[in-house]
Fold this sequence. Notes:
By secondary structure, the protein is of the alpha/beta class. The chain has 4 helices and 5 strands, in the order ββααβαβαβ.
Amino acid sequence: MDIKNEGPTLVLVGDFDARTSGEVRSAIYDHLHCDYVSKHPEQAVAIDLTEVDHVDLVALRVIAVASRTAARSGRRMVLRGACPSVRRMLHLSHLIRAVELENEPQPA
C-alpha cells in the first residue's frame, strides 16, 4: 500500500485489506491531525480510493470508524473515487450510513 498526503486529500494506492488496514488507519488519523487540516477545518478531508485495487470489509470498517471520529471532532471526511465494487460493499455491509461519498462528475 502506497499512501500519499496531498493537502486535504489522502491518496491510497494498492490493495486496502486486513493486511494494510493498520497502516492506513494510522495514516488517516495522522492526516486528520496534520497541520494543513488543522489550519483549514472548514475543508473536507478526502480519502482518494481511485487507485485502490482491492478493498475488504476490514478496510471499509477502518474508513467508517475514522469518518465517525472525524465527525465527532467537527470535521467532514469523504471518500473520493470509490469504484462500483467498493460502493456495493458499503451498501451490503450497511457501512454506507457511516461514510460520505463524494459526488462523481456526471458524463456530458
